[in-house]
Design brief:
Largest sheet: 6 strands, mixed, barrel
Structural class: alpha+beta
Radius of gyration: 27 Å
CATH architecture of the largest domain: Beta Barrel
Strand content: 15-25%
Number of domains: 4
CATH topology of the largest domain: Cathepsin D, subunit A, domain 1
Order of helices and strands: HEEEEHEEEEHEEEHHEEHH
Number of helices: 7
Number of strands: 13
Helix content: 10-25%
CATH class of the largest domain: Mainly Beta
C-alpha cells in the first residue's frame, strides 16, 4: 500500500487491512481479508513464463510422468497415512520434494470435519500441469496429527494448507520433509526417517516391520503387560487394606468413579460474549533458537508435556541467563504469557466432577 493510499484511507475512516473506506472498524478488529494481500492469477491456464510468488506444487497426475522412456520415467511416491487418532480412512499422501508447503484438498477437510483456521497472510498455490500453470487462492489451513499406516512413525503437529488438488488428497512438501529429517530415495522408492529407538539408524516408512522386529515388539509388550498386571494386583491389595483401615471415610452410597471417566483432560471455555483470542508471538534470535528448542523437547521426553487438540494457546518466550554465550549447558528461562488467554476464558474449568455434583 502506497503512502497516498494510506492517507486516503485514514482521511475517510478506512481500514488498513480490508482497505475499505468508512469501514466502521479498525485494523485490529477487522475480520475481512484484503483482496490485495492474496495475489491470485486467473483460474484459467497461464503461460509458463509468468512468475508466481505464491506456493509451488509440482506433482499432480500420473500421466505427467509418461512422456519419456522407461529409464527416464519417475513414478510419484505415495505414503499411506492417517490424519486423526481415531478410526478414519487411510489417505495416500504424495511425497513431493518440489512443493514449497504441505497441502490437503478441501474435500477431505469437509469429509474428516477438520477445524479450519485462517492464514495470517493469504497466499496462492501454483499448480504445474505439463506446460501450463494454474494458480488458486489459499487462505485457510488445518493443524492435525499424522501417522503412517504401518504404525512405524507419527507426529502430533502437521500444518496443512487447504487448496484444490484435483485428483490428489494430500501433499507432503519440502518443509515437512526437512522438519522431520526425511530422506526420499527415488531409485529404491524409500522414505527414510530417523529410528526413534536406535541412534544413527533410519527406517523406511513404505515397508512393514520385519519379522524379527515384530517378535521383539511382541516380547516387549508381553513383558510390559505382565509388569502392569503385577503392579495392578499390588495396588488393588493396597486399596483394599486402605479401605478397611479407613472404612468410616468410604460410605457405600458414593457413585463409582467409572461413571465420570472421560478422555478429556482439560476443557477450556470462553467467557460469554468473548471471541477466540488471537495471540501475538514473540521472536527469538537465531543464535538462541537451538537452546529454545531443547526446552520443550526435554519436557516432552520426560512426559511433562503431551499432545493437545485445544484451539487455544498462549505465546511463550525465553529469558537469557548469564553465561549462555560461553556455556551451551546453561539453559534459558521459559516464560508463558497467559494474560490474554486468562482474560478470555473461564478459570478453573476441568472435566472432573465437582464434589457437590457427586453427592447430589
Amino acid at each position: 500500500m502506497t503512502d497516498c493510499e494510506r492517507a486516503f484511507l485514514k482521511s475517510n475512516r478506512g481500514c488498513f487491512k480490508c482497505q475499505k473506506i468508512n469501514a466502521g472498524h479498525l485494523s485490529d478488529t477487522c475480520t475481512t481479508w484484503a483482496t490485495a494481500a492474496c495475489k491470485v492469477v486467473s483460474m484459467t491456464d497461464i503461460d509458463e513464463g509468468v512468475d508466481d510468488e505464491g506456493e509451488q506444487l509440482h506433482c499432480l497426475r500420473n500421466d505427467e510422468y509418461d512422456n519419456g522412456t522407461d529409464e527416464e520415467r519417475c513414478e510419484p511416491i505415495f505414503l499411506p497415512v492417517k490424519l486423526t487418532n481415531d478410526d478414519r480412512p487411510v489417505l495416500r499422501a504424495l511425497v513431493d520434494t518440489g512443493a514449497s508447503a504441505s497441502f490437503i484438498t478441501d474435500r477431505e477437510v469437509e469429509k474428516l470435519r477438520l477445524t479450519r483456521r485462517k492464514l495470517q497472510v493469504p497466499t496462492s498455490v501454483s499448480v504445474a500441469i505439463q506446460s501450463h500453470r494454474v494458480s488458486h487462492p489459499v487462505t485457510e489451513f488445518v493443524c492435525v496429527p499424522l501417522r503412517t499406516l504401518n504404525g512405524r512413525w507419527s507426529t502430533q503437529h502437521v500444518v496443512l494448507k487447504i487448496a484444490p488438488l484435483m485428483s490428489l488428497k494430500l501433499v507432503l512438501g519440502r518443509p515437512f520433509l526437512k522438519r522431520h529429517d526425511m530422506l526420499v530415495d527415488c531409485r529404491r522408492r524409500q522414505v527414510l526417517v530417523p529410528d526413534p529407538t536406535l541412534p544413527d539408524e533410519r527406517i523406511d516408512l513404505l515397508t512393514d516391520r520385519s519379522a524379527s522386529a515384530v517378535q521383539a515388539g511382541v516380547r516387549a509388550c508381553l513383558a510390559r503387560l505382565e509388569e502392569q498386571q503385577a503392579e495392578g494386583s499390588y495396588l488393588r491389595a493396597m486399596e483394599a487394606e486402605f479401605r478397611r483401615e479407613f472404612s468410616d471415610r468410604f460410605p457405600v452410597d458414593i457413585p463409582p468413579v467409572s461413571q465420570y471417566e472421560s478422555k478429556v483432560c482439560h476443557r477450556i471455555l470462553l467467557k460469554p460474549g468473548m471471541k477466540r483470542p488471537r495471540q501475538p508471538t514473540y521472536g527469538t534470535p537465531m543464535r538462541w533458537r537451538a537452546a529454545w528448542r531443547r526446552l520443550p523437547d526435554e519436557h516432552l521426553a520426560a512426559g511433562r508435556l503431551c499432545a493437545s487438540s485445544s484451539e487455544y494457546s498462549s505465546p511463550a518466550f525465553i529469558i537469557l541467563k548469564k553465561g549462555m554465550d560461553t556455556d551451551a549447558l546453561i539453559m534459558p528461562r521459559w516464560v508463558n504469557d497467559y494474560r490474554i488467554l486468562n482474560a478470555a476464558t473461564v478459570p478453573d474449568c476441568t472435566p472432573l466432577p465437582c464434589k457437590d455434583h457427586s453427592v447430589s
